[in-house]
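Posting for a labmate who doesn't have an account.
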Amino acid sequence: MEYAVRLIGVSHGYGAHEILRGLDFSVEEGGFCCIMGRSGCGKSTLLRLIAGIEKPLCGEVYADSRLAISFQEPRLAPWLRAEKNVRLGMRGQSRRQQEEAALKALTDVGLAGKARAWPLTLSGGQAQRVSLARALVRRPRLLLLDEPFGSLDAFTRGEMHELLAALVREYKLSVVMVTHDREEARRFSDTVFVLEDGKMREE
């Protein structure tokens, strides 16, 4: 069995506050896993560990090296147009290749006509689409999503759900998504996990 993500005996915390305790957790390649839990239980910390942004205090974290992460807030640079936000930090390609890849990613998320738009002129849903395009332009195999639709209204969230489903199929992604929405979790995931007291339980 191939794993996109695997954590073995992972513990992590800040100061005297332990958040994760000997956590074992895995996601099969091509799987879609949703993680739920109370605020402050360590869901975002778990994503940062998988992404390699933080290192566990103990235990092992294995994750596909071709990964990208998208957060609840789009986190766009307001001084860069949409296309430049998408290719921000890209390396290993010529500028023309980067621009072509960014334009394709924007097209894939339904923003073909917004490449020159400034972030402050975009709606919340459009800004979140740019954030997704920035993740997808790196052609990841593993996509980490931290409550990506939590700040959107119900209508826009529905549109984003349809978009995400299409992108997962097109890009053949493995996905780990943090969400507070049970219906969202049931709609997308092969498996729903609840993080509680530093441990995972399958729901």
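Reply:
Got it, the structure tokens are right above this. The domain at 3-202 is CATH 3.40.50.300 (Rossmann fold).
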